[in-house]
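Summary: Need help interpreting a holo structure output

Steps to reproduce:
1. Submit the protein chain below together with the SMILES for calcium ion.
2. Request a joint structure prediction with the ligand placed.
3. Inspect the structure token block that comes back.

Expected: a single structure record containing both the chain and the bound molecule.
Actual: see attached output.

Input attached:
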Amino acid sequence: MPLSRSSWLARGQWVPLSGVAALVLATVCACGSAPRAGPSAEGTFAPSSPPPSLFSTRSDQADSSVPLRVEPQSCWDEAVLYFVVLDRFADGDRSNDRDVRRGTPGGFHGGDLQGLRRELDEIAGLGATALWITPVAQNITGFVTGAGFPDWAYHGYWADDVYRLDPRFGSEEDLRRLVDDAHARGLRVLLDVVYNHVGYGSRYLSDPATRAWLRSEDAGTCGRDDLTLCVAGLPDWRTEVPRVADYLMDAHLGLAARVGLDGFRLDTVKHVSHEVWQRHRQRVRSELGDGFFLLGEVWGGSAQVLDPYFAADELDAGFDFTFQGNTLAFLQGRGRPVAFEHYLETRQAVRTGYLLAHFLSSHDVPTALYLLDGDLDLFRLAALLQLTVRGIPVIYYGEEVGRLGGEWPENRSDMPWGERPVEPGEGLARNEALRADYQRLIALRRNHPALWRGDHVGLKTEGDLLAFVRQDPESDDLVVVAVNRGAEPVAMELDLRQPFGAPDGDAWPDPWQATTDVLDAWNRERLPVADGALAVALAPRSARILILPPTGEPGPESTIHDGEAEPCPASD
Ligand SMILES: [Ca+2]
Ligand SMILES: [Ca+2]
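--- attached output ---
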């Protein structure tokens, strides 16, 4: 556990510290999450907007005055979620820049709701379907020094008044306009809300009307179990008291209704009781409707860990904390591909109607590109795997343009904007080719039901090769994904006339058995099929995504299946 509150809290004058950068490896969790301290396919965009080309870049879009529009997700199974740390994304209002110290990793950097609203095309242009933004409640004004450097509440997880928006992020009207503009682009919006704790030294502790509502280190009332401890020394709401839970629910549900949010990202879920989450769900259903989405952060979440929350219908989805480590280990040659394949199969064991949301990077873990030592080839493969397996892929702002990030707090570095005059990340280099790869992967995923809702079936693991099938029985859509993580080329042969997936596998769908060639949609290459045999060669550290060639007009755009998004049942 971290230091006591008195050593954490040091409200007062800003004192520049030398050697701040040397302290970035400190592992204190600032949000209190854990005690450790395409091609834009035709049809994806509305006809009124210029569809970006196969390799559309930000500069293409910047020339257009017409907002980009994403074909809205038909259900959350189909979502591609883009996560923004608001303070680090885009500064749209210099007048609210309070406590801004851009050279300081723990300082505010000025990003706000207006800035994000202005840059929504960045997210729609990528092809994401939904947005998750860090909390916007009014936070404490001071900074803490427990990590050895001053750290402000720029992340939004240290509330001081849950009924007000933090002016450093903007007004409620700014949030409403952001949601409206996101909806106009086809994007859904999830707001991060915190039911477990408030910020260090929050006004709730000094207000006689509310101080008994919290457990705190000052009062010596912090408990020892998950529900009653003071996570990272943060004062803990007594949510077991109905009046306290209602106070918080009234605030968050009221805001959601007024501004038109589509759901919440719920912080620190395992530190609040199941009873509270069940009541929360009931109130959400009755006040915000059945479609209001609840994505919960249960630290260490996996299909198994999250199941109790799904069994009692407290959440619609939860974060899969296992994906990053398993995927990076596979790509770095740690463990055999068969072990990774087994892991991918276990990810399917999710209760029907509920979802895992998997990330490569987040604000609470080191970023993937950093963990891969900046190796872009491996990072591309990681992104390819993230966007071809089951679950809701969560893209952490900037990783799609090569933001390196690092350990905390460098994992929350500024969004790179290249030459565009957008603070705080103006002048930070962007890798547009990587972003184009993300666009293609997202478009592929959205156009293939097999990729977003299909079954996962292992195909081959041999040497450094991993190959699997994603198959959607309902639409008969099928996609083969093959990855060679090794430094040597590999080859495999698929017999399309034999069942796949031992021992009692399914037959390849008829069109696959009859085809004379298969399309590698990732490398835009046709592979011939001779007598039902498909020979697939993979260069070192490369991947292939195999689909049936389109039956329509030839050309690069038609590499993408142009099927209508089929409605899927709401989670029940
Ligand atoms: Ca600002
Ligand atoms: Ca608690």
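--- end attachment ---

Reviewer comment: The two ends are 38 Å apart (CA to CA). The longest strand covers residues 455-462.
Status: needs-info
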